[in-house]
Amino acid sequence: MAEAQDDYPAHLATYTSFNKLVTFSILWIILLLVAMAIGLVGHLPLLALVMGIGGSIALLIAFAILS
């Protein structure tokens, strides 16, 4: 039983890291889908490119700072 209590901080750290990874992945996929929709459906390819690249960089910086 004592081993299970000792493993709790490690499990919590793993769960938190996995949660951040899943959140980042979902937000990045949504960002790319929106950028593709703006570029293809909205006929604004330059805005889509800037939004896609800028948004990806912003997501990377935000998740690097928050972790």
Set down the secondary structure blueprint:
Blueprint lengths: L1 H5 L1 H33 L4 H22 L1
Helix pairs in contact: 2-3
Which word captures the global form? elongated
**Helical amount among residues, as a percent range?**
over 70%
Average pLDDT, rounded to a whole number, is 91
Could you name the ranges where pLDDT drops below 50 across 5 or more consecutive residues? none
Major sheet description: none
**Integer-rounded radius of gyration:** 18 Å
Task: Please give the number of β-strands.
Answer: 0
C-alpha termini separation: 31 Å
Name the structural class. mainly alpha
Output the helix-strand order: HHH
Outline the structure in words:
The chain is built from 3 helices and no strands. By secondary structure, it is an all-alpha fold. The longest helix has 33 residues, at 8-40. The chain is elongated.
Jot down its keywords.
mainly alpha; 3 helices; 0% strand
Brief description of this entry?
With 67 residues, the protein is mainly alpha-helical. The chain has helices at residues 2-6, 8-40, 45-66.
